Amino acid sequence: MLEARGLVKSFGALEVTREVSLHLPAGARHAVVGPNGSGKTTLFNLLAGELRPDAGGVLLAERDVTRLPSDARARLGLARSFQRNNLFPDLSVRDSLALALTIARGQGAVFWRRFARLPGLAGAVEALARRLRLEEVLERPARRLAYGTQRQLELGLALAGAPKVLLLDEPTAGMSAEETAAMTALIAGLPRDIAILIVEHDMEVVFEIAERIIVLDYGRVLIEGTPAEVRASSVVRQRYFGERAP
Ligand SMILES: Nc1ncnc2c1ncn2[C@@H]1O[C@H](COP(=O)(O)OP(=O)(O)O)[C@@H](O)[C@H]1O
Ligand SMILES: [Mg+2]
Predict the structure, then answer these.
(1) Ligand closest in space to the Cα of 170
(2) What pLDDT tens digit does each residue of the chain (246 aa) get?
(3) Ligand 1 site: residues with CB under 6 angstroms?
(4) How far is the CA of 182 from the centre of ligand 1 (A)?
């Protein structure tokens, strides 16, 4: 569904992405892990179209999208959430979801005038709110939601376009243990027709969600494999779990 082929990206003299390739089949759940500054967000920006690679390419459903901007990739079924909060603070949960749904349907221009009259919109908003466990806070402005709930709403906005591929950049960053558990359950429960690539520093979350893990190290793929393979890898154990070489 999503493929990266030999992506390379530098900022000035700093080589941040070094020949990264990955393959995310339809419905798969893969994770990208690695220390701060290893190039995880840059990789997401390359995949989503916010950055252009210096070399290499991106394929979405077997189509070369390397030269397409992020909005065109979104229309082809690629959605992402951001590492930082990205909401309209004064808009209610209901209106935020309604706006995202009307934009996803290409009807954003009519939103402010008469969105209440768009056929099926109210039901779609409520279905999305149920999936995100936001039914209780539909009338609340985003800025008055707890932090974890704001991140749930963000996930809802990303899901509004019925994506085929979802990129999640540190969805549990800054969350309490309960919020992390709730978000993990939400992500794990998403329909299997959505392929998910998640950047996450919490290894418990990674092991719960991901079938395959890509470990980045200074912009390079250090190892890629199943959770068991990654756990068993001596180089990962030494670098990330502080074990000494045998
Ligand atoms: N727009 C940019 N301009 C210059 N340097 C950048 C830019 N974006 C990221 N970097 C640098 O690239 C490296 C990788 O950053 P990033 O992809 O955000 O890593 P991660 O998400 O793994 O923490 C860091 O050293 C960061 O400072
Ligand atoms: Mg990052």
Answers:
(1) 2
(2) 999 999 999 999 999 999 999 999 999 999 999 999 999 999 999 999 999 999 999 999 999 999 999 989 998 999 988 656 678 899 999 999 998 888 887 766 665 556 666 778 889 999 999 999 999 999 999 999 999 999 999 999 999 989 999 999 999 999 999 999 999 999 999 999 999 999 998 999 999 999 999 999 999 999 999 999 998 888 877 776 666 655
(3) 11, 14, 16, 34, 36-42
(4) 29
Options 3.30.420.40, 1.10.10.10, 3.40.1170.60, 3.40.50.300; CATH of 2-87+164-240: 3.40.50.300
Which residue's CA is minimally distant from atom 12 of ligand 1?
Answer: 16
Q: How far is CA 195 from the centre of its chain?
A: 10
d(CA 8, CA 201): 23
Atom index in ligand 1 nearest the CA of residue 219 equals 14
C-alpha distance from residue 188 to each of 96, 192, 214, 245 (Å): 23, 9, 18, 34
Residue 199 alpha carbon, nearest atom of ligand 1: 21
Question: Residue 150 has which token pair?
Answer: 């704001």
Name 86's Cβ contacts closer than 8 Å, sequence gap at least 6.
Answer: 154, 157
Ligand 1 pocket, mutate which of 11, 170, 200 (most atoms under 8 A from CB): 11
Domain ranges of the chain: 2-87+164-240
User: Whole-prediction pTM value?
Assistant: 0.91
Ligand 1: which of 7, 10, 14, 50 to mutate, most ligand atoms within 8 Å of CB? 14
Q: What are phi and psi of 84, to 5 degrees?
A: -105, 155
